[in-house]
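Below is a filled-in request sheet from our internal design queue. Each sheet records the structural input a requester submitted and the sequence that came back. We keep these sheets so that new team members can see what a complete request looks like end to end.

REQUESTER: design group, bay 2
PRIORITY: normal
MODE: inverse folding
CHAIN LENGTH: 297
BACKBONE (tokenized):
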């Protein structure tokens, strides 16, 4: 499977394409039958999630009259709560395309994600897969957990007790804009805004900003920004994540790139008197994580 390839149907768009399959002995009917059976199974959970107690609490399948079917999975133990994830699967024989529509983005926010598989026979036999998701701003439990982890690291490094720190997901921003952010409680008793900003920059430069990091390179841009190249290894797979870190006044941001493709941005907002932290993440790059088991098989 080859990523970021020109789509056979529209060369201006990118897809995942298999190597030519002309030498393999299977029919289209066998392919779709296997995929349909796979898509009726519960969402595959990564090993790290299982170790943290994340599990499938409920799995339901509903067959519809038009031949499509619905799958509902309830994920339990996700940051101490349950999250329902709904899929609708359908097949279009005219285009030889399977469509999977999910009501949550890869970060499990309520944002539609559409994943498609297509079989091609001309000019050569190929499997094509691509994913499209809507623009999403993530201020949920993953982002609030990120704030807790950052604050915990800074306070541990300073030898300061961290008992009493409160971080909540999806809170109205203190700037009155109406947007939702993950937000801390008052932090004046723990550290100052300057100590937070300086501590986060040192944490990133020292290679502690991303889990499972196995290498980091720093390139200076100007007095307010720098670029990091992080090598991350997860489950034996290595990839490189680029980020441009900058701050101006009481707003910091990190723009992330993978393989020169823009993947998203994290914003950090400092509110003073009292000192509080707010975060959100702009998710721009979709994931085909729910199709990964099939593609690797």
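RETURNED SEQUENCE:
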């Amino acid at each position: 499977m080859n990523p970021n390839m020109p789509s056979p149907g529209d060369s201006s768009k990118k897809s995942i394409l298999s190597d030519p399959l002309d030498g393999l002995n299977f029919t289209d009917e066998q392919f779709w039958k296997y995929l349909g059976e796979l898509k009726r199974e519960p969402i595959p959970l990564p090993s790290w999630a299982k170790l943290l107690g994340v599990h499938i609490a409920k799995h339901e399948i509903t067959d519809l009259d038009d031949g499509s079917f619905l799958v509902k999975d309830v994920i339990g133990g996700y940051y101490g709560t349950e999250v329902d994830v709904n899929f609708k699967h359908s097949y279009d024989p005219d285009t030889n395309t399977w469509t999977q529509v999910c009501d949550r983005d890869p970060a499990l926010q309520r944002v539609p994600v559409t994943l498609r598989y297509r079989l091609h026979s001309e000019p050569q036999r190929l499997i094509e897969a691509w994913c499209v998701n809507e623009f999403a701003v993530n201020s949920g439990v993953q982002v609030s957990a990120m704030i807790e982890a950052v604050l915990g690291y800074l306070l541990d490094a300073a030898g300061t007790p961290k008992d009493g720190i409160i971080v909540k997901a999806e809170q109205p921003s203190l700037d009155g804009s109406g947007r939702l952010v993950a937000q801390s409680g008052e932090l004046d008793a723990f550290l100052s805004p300057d100590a937070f900003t300086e501590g986060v920059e040192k944490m990133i430069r020292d290679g502690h900003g991303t889990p499972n990091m196995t290498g980091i390179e720093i390139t200076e841009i100007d007095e307010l920004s720098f670029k990091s190249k992080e090598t991350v290894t997860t489950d034996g797979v290595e990839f490189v994540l680029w980020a441009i870190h900058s701050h101006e006044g009481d707003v910091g941001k990190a723009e992330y790139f993978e393989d020169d493709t823009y993947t998203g941005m994290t914003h950090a907002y400092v509110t003073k008197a009292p000192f509080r932290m707010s975060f959100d993440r702009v998710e721009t790059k979709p994931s085909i994580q729910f199709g990964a088991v099939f593609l690797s098989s």
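SHEET NOTES:
- The chain is about 20% helix and 45% strand.
- Residues 172 and 180 are 5 Å apart (CA to CA).
FILED BY: M.R.
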